[in-house]
Sequence to fold (113 residues):
Amino acid sequence: MMNENPEIASAWKGRILMHIEAQESKHPERKVGDIEPSIKEKAINKKLFKERIYDIVTEIGMGVSLPSNNKQYKIRVKIGDAYDVTSAFPKEAKPGYNRWSERFEPSENKSVY
Fold:
C-alpha cells in the first residue's frame, strides 16, 4: 500500500523512521496541518477511516545534531491520547548528541486512523 499510495502511508502498520528538525526556542510551538482533501478522499474511498485497535511500542534511541551543544533533552512521543516520555536525563549526553536507548512497554490504543 505504501508504494502504491504514499500519500496515505500513515495507515501502514510497521516501523516509522522520522526525520525531525529542531530549533532553540524559549516558547516551542506545536503545529498541526490539515490533510489535503484529495488525499482524504482517497483514504475514505479505501475505507481507511475506521475505528481500530492497535498496539504501539515506542523505542527511542538517540538524537544527533541537536540545536544546543550543552543541553540534555527529553523526548515525548504522542499518538492520539497515548504518549511516552523519556527519563529526565539521557544515558549519554555530548555536544549536539543525546542517547536514551529506551523502549517502552507496548500499549493498546483505540483510534480512527
Observations:
- The chain has a mean pLDDT of 77.
- The two ends are 15 Å apart (CA to CA).
- Helices lie at 37-45.
- The longest strand covers residues 97-103.
